[in-house]
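Q&A log
Question type: sequence-to-structure
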Amino acid sequence: MAHRFDPRHADKLLSAERHALLPPDTLLDLLDVQEGDVVLDLGAGPGFFTLPAAKRTNVPVYALDIAQEMLMLTLERAKAEGITHIHPLHAEMHAIPLPDASVTRVLASTVLHETNRLEETLREIRRVLMPRGRLMVIEWDAQAMAYGPPLHHRLPRKNLEERLSSLGFSVEDHPWPPYYYILLGERRASS
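Response status: OK
Response body:
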């Protein structure tokens, strides 16, 4: 069984420490989220990236999470900020309830290691992403450290990079010390 984050600890996902380690605006700049981009935030949690993404665009931003409690927290936070175009998706990552080629940006932050169906999840990401759409994967470095999930649940960056490439993504590797790595992918127009 894959490691799953416990929704009772949602406050950790909104902490000042996490903001310092994964600054949302800096990372959304790297993903190049612009006005008019339809964004899918996989494993959205309490909306750490969802709300900042929604502030950049005026079209739907989809927050997908398996935990209904996380989606409710995202919507509460959005309502408090006057954001009305976030659409919650209560679903598994390997079965995204969106049409083919319906989003321009996908963000998967520290969540892919939580699925037992990684290949299906990557295929679903490719399916919903428009040609030339961009994907950002943020994952834990596969090295022993006191922070994050157990080592045996982490995804080695080279393996994930190869899987994405085989599915028709051009992939750039961006180290993000001290705990993470980032893979930026663009769905090739011909794939």
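Response note: The mean pLDDT is 91.
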